[in-house]
Specification:
The chain has a four-stranded antiparallel β-sheet, with no helix packed on it. The protein has a single domain, classed as FAS1 domain. The chain contains one helix and eight strands, in the order E-H-E-E-E-E-E-E-E. The protein has one helix spanning 28-37, and strands at 11-12, 39-40, 54-56, 63-68, 74-76, 79-81, 83-84, 88-89. With 90 residues, it is of the alpha+beta class.
């Protein structure tokens, strides 16, 4: 699989290792789509995410939904979003 050439800012929502326990990863195009689903072509900071907000992903036409809780925790598809080193989220 070759890496796409992208211009501009990107935000990667990287699942933790725990998210992959017991999961058989797909191969080929399915794996590429899974990876593209976790990338948004914009700078997204946790504090800028709105509750029930949707964002387009590189896996078109799929969008990721965010939830904001009062504790203050942000999640994407039910998984916590934590800002680390710039704008990568795990």
């Amino acid at each position: 699989m070759s890496a796409p050439r992208l211009a501009g800012e990107l935000t990667i929502f990287a699942p933790t290792n725990e998210a992959f326990k017991g999961v058989t990863l797909p191969e080929g195009a399915e794996l590429a789509n899974l990876l593209k689903y976790h990338v948004v072509s914009a700078k997204v900071k946790a504090e800028d995410i709105a509750d029930n907000g949707l964002s387009a992903t590189l896996y078109e036409p799929h969008r990721v939904r965010f939830n904001v809780y009062t504790d203050p925790q942000v999640s994407a598809r039910g998984q916590a979003v934590v800002q680390r080193r710039g704008f990568s989220h795990t």
